[in-house]
Amino acid sequence: MAIVGVSSEGGYGFANGMLLACRAMGFAGEILPVNPKGGTFAGQTIFHSLEEIPGDIDFAVIAVPAPAVPEALEACRRKGAAGAEVLTAGFGETGTPEGRVLEQQIREVAARGIRVVGPNCFGIYCPASGLTLLPGAGLSRETGPVGFLSQSGGMSIDLAHLGGWMGLRFSKVISFGNGADLREAELLRYLADDPETGVIAMYVEGVADGSDFFQAIREAALRKPVVVLKGGLSEAGGRAVVGHTASMGGSRAIWSGVLRQANATRVESLEELAQACLAFSHLPARVFRGISAVGGGGALGAAAGDAAEACGITLPAFSPDLRDRIEAILPRPGSSAANPIDVANPFVPPAVLGQVLRLAAEDTRVGLQVLISLLYHYKSQARAVGVAVADITPCTELAETVAAAAADTGKPVVMVLPDLMRGPEDLDLAGMMAGAREEFTGRGVPVFGAIGEALRAIGHVSAYYERRLPREES
Amino acid sequence: MAIVGVSSEGGYGFANGMLLACRAMGFAGEILPVNPKGGTFAGQTIFHSLEEIPGDIDFAVIAVPAPAVPEALEACRRKGAAGAEVLTAGFGETGTPEGRVLEQQIREVAARGIRVVGPNCFGIYCPASGLTLLPGAGLSRETGPVGFLSQSGGMSIDLAHLGGWMGLRFSKVISFGNGADLREAELLRYLADDPETGVIAMYVEGVADGSDFFQAIREAALRKPVVVLKGGLSEAGGRAVVGHTASMGGSRAIWSGVLRQANATRVESLEELAQACLAFSHLPARVFRGISAVGGGGALGAAAGDAAEACGITLPAFSPDLRDRIEAILPRPGSSAANPIDVANPFVPPAVLGQVLRLAAEDTRVGLQVLISLLYHYKSQARAVGVAVADITPCTELAETVAAAAADTGKPVVMVLPDLMRGPEDLDLAGMMAGAREEFTGRGVPVFGAIGEALRAIGHVSAYYERRLPREES
Lengths: 474, 474
Hints:
Chain A is α/β, with parallel strands linked by helices.
């Protein structure tokens, strides 16, 4: 892999940053820096030209000034590169004639036989090879089912980081910027065919060919979930995307109709995008219409019931017999098990919560369970007995118990761990919460930060499979 | 203040916990523990009875078993207490005849001349005196404008903790549980009259007298913002509140109409409640219809524009002249200043951002500015130069600059600081982010964690004053 534009003068330019980031990631191939001025950077000799590199290259990262990009791209093509990513900005998005001409020149080189991602992008993150996004040193090397197509470089790196600790693992993240060559429709078809990708996420600002895009997303969504965040649907948002990726914002009504007809999942924010991907990648391909909700505190259950109804999910009332059997193992007074189940306080032992989950799973109308745990309360216990909060909070035991209950009952459990104390004096809790999340996600149990966010994500999964499954049967 | 039910055998019962919590808070008055068995706890002699206490008492915390509560309450009344809070559960919410009888007995004692908060509650948090909620050691002693009435103890302590680091400061938090005596309508009138309270927040599960409540909330909302989270509007949520505080859930349509007619602000979650209170307590009493949005990355501006439109807020397009003057001080390429303003990257110096805010404020249609800053990106810079992220991130300078721009232009600035990296290896960022939030909120600049959350909260403020101001004029 050639990186064109590495400077021996150091600094934090795109090319130098990319070289360091890929090395930090342990990039699986050879990294070949190129700059007409030669020299060395970070212990590597810089080739004066692509021609100087012995043998062919497979791929190139191009980060030279915009006017020099078409020539550099052509040199990569002649050197045998099948593809390249152009990080440089200053093309169609500037709105200037020069920018548009340069972008057209990229397209012309591409047409001669090299596929291009960009320009004006952060490139490709591929955990399997260690290729990473522009400022992406430190991303995970673990591969997972989420493929993300992003017209915005910022969104690509933001979701990669946000998803990292939430438990998302990526097959590929592709920041395609202005999309001079490769863009939404073709990349959608690629991810739809990609066996590594189980869920497609997408941030789109505008499409080049509406009917081609509709066909591509419709076909993709027949095969796997496609979650779409569309930026620029308001007047001001539309103004932003023109200057950002030279896109047309489009109409809210049209986009809403297109995504609904394609059975794509529409989300409204980066956070919702990440949460939907978490649910799609951690939950089985099922429709969840009935659930149970378990938490220590009556208002939690009320919130879960209210949020569920807004997402088309119900909490069936348990039979008196089941209710009695659950209440028999819970602290009294303060508990109730009508579904939602109020376990009365945040300190109910994991073994008891595991029993509650197993009992509630006996109701055949329950297809999934939500367990809400306010772990921050352990801080007052820790203070009272004078130990560290991480030592007193039974995260591992709770995660093991929950994962076992989910496995044995065949009904997934979704955790809600609100992170309600985040001040400067609560960094012990930040550490405990981060560790707790890993305990759960490492065992395949998705963790959300708020009740409404969990239910909304579960609702997306249900809605997708409800609309998709009948088509497959017919 | 008597605490009735303190046990010399220690343990973490309600009364012992409350005594320790109030001492940890530096409670301003004398704490007098009571238990028929006597003994000592935490170095204090326990009175065998209320009668044994020399002189009168002002207030009592009652945490004895439910059957003993009416008698203890009567003893407090005879001892001169003007009020008491009953933490004990096991009354009307159990649905049993015994529970209902005991609750009626509380009402009868109250009618003889002592006001009661509870039973089945976490009590009162009053920062000025150091009285705190049941598990509330460690809450702030700073008084502020937010008064919170909560039927749920869990919600009261959750909002007190969540609000603490978000920058909310409370006048009083009152967890009133079953509300045997004092409850929603009377407490609303109290907070409406309370000069310390500028914003009333409310978590309600059910009301005792619908038309009295409507009158009380309508009158309160004529004087100050009232933000309401109603729990139990779904079938399952309604089931939860019956067992929780013996409430009737009620109909979504009726509640929606009542709150709209009262000009109360309706929210859907604890998080939205906290965010709305943050906006109401930090922003001036104005209608914000036009705003600017500033961020490093085009997708941020698109998101702000889209979220604003959904909240009835517009981002007016700047004149070509203003646009040019802003773009002249921004990095090129990658920036644009049509409003939203894309400052191109997350590392633009605070002084430049301050200039951008001052320029954008020249547009008379802009009444408020939103500045989005992805501070987590400083971590890669810190790594590259080998320093701690807290040392390289210009939080203090940015907060000073933003606060000065807001003060000088008379147009408030709202910060959005997404906390996108929260894994176990990012605790340095958790510390930096917590410190950054304090820098801003300490200067009166509210901080939100997500673009959509900030705009929604601003929208609540606008909507409230838009509907209220005309009435005052008429």
